[in-house]
Hints:
Layout lengths: L22 E2 L4 E5 L5 H14 L5 H4 L5 E7 L5 E7 L8 E8 L10 H13 L1 H5 L1 E10 L4 E3 L3 H5 L3 H10 L18 H4 L6 H12 L5 E3 L3 E7 H6 L9 E5 L4 E3 L6 H19 L8
Antiparallel strand pairs: 1-2, 2-4, 3-4, 5-6, 5-9, 6-7, 8-11, 9-10
Enzyme class: transferase
Pfam families: IPK (PF03770)
Subcellular location: Nucleus
Amino acid sequence: MQLKAPEHQVAGHIAKDGKPGPLVDDKGRFFKPLQGDSRGEIEVKFYESFSSNTEVPEHIRRYFPVYHGTQAVEGSDGAAMIVLENLLADFSKPSVMDVKMGTRTWYPEASEEYIQKCLKKDTGTTTVSAGFRISGFEVFDHKESSFWKPERKLLRGLNVDGARLTLRKFVSSNSLSDIGSKPDSAFASSVYGSSHGILTQLLELKNWFENQTLYHFNSCSILMVYENESILKGNDDDDARPQVKLVDFAHVLDGNGVIDHNFLGGLCSFINFIRDILQSPNESAES
Length: 287
């Protein structure tokens, strides 16, 4: 089995200081190291529960990675890893964005130290003010024939207008390496709009979250992916369509019959940002 580091990881843990990072194989699988303390156990517990939960509607399952169990991986010091569907396996030049949802990223059972750590990040980013924060993104710049990815520390400094500008950049055709250029939002209607676009998928998720009380998705992210080349060529087959996926479930807790208002509130806010761009594609907020 040939394993390598994922090419288009925009957020999350990476291999560092002797700790293994995620890996992918050539069979469409993604290997995610089990996180320390209780986080790894929580994530495995969620996947096992979710994959067998008959209360989850079939049309909602497509928004989650397929779970293939856990496996010890040679070459990573035998580290145990969660084996998942590689969400980018079918993309050749993907533009990817990771958006962490909710007005808070800590969970009720967390330690006071962890809560304070999260509060500092939540209040210093758009998590509290907008209900979400952009954790990372990468865009294929077809004019430069290369990928463009901003540093994470720049994203952490975004205010609300900066987040709106970044969501426009994500669907723009003009070169993003030119800091002074305003994003043209040329792909907004194809990626965010259209009958199979991001907005339609977000609204389908919203309908579920307005009623689901099975889980509370603390510190969970929405991953948005589209293929620039397909948009430029006007392809509309299933493989070319923009995709929304939910990822990162290390802090998911049982819903206990209560609606997940934290995630739902962030999702509603995010939907409004996307709608604003679709309604005014030529406007460009200043960060």
